[in-house]
Amino acid sequence: MNEMSVSPTNPAFQAMLSKLNSDMRFVGIITIIGGAISCLGIITAIVGVPLIISGMRLREAADSFTTYLASNDLAVLQQGLERQSRYFFIQKVFIIIGLVLTGLYLIFFLAFFGTIMRSYQGY
Length: 123
Hints:
Layout lengths: L10 H28 L6 H27 L2 H48 L2
Helix pairs in contact: 1-2, 2-3
């Protein structure tokens, strides 16, 4: 197993963190754009605002990682990881809500479909 040193001077670590930084910026921008589009509707703004906030947290985390690569300050790295964890927490909440709503939708659909099928059996 190839173990990588977490030292800020390790070129492999710097390359990995740089790639992660780039990916986080991209995902953050897409999340912010998706949130802004969701905010075009009054009801969908309930989803859009948290999406914008989570995208901003991910962009802030990427900024912290960039600062860490330049300064090797572990406090900045910790701050970036905290912001990244906030992004993932918001996404986790969205996933749980989505799964619950999908389950409710399926239950409603099956109940509705069952009612329709029972009403046609009589004819």
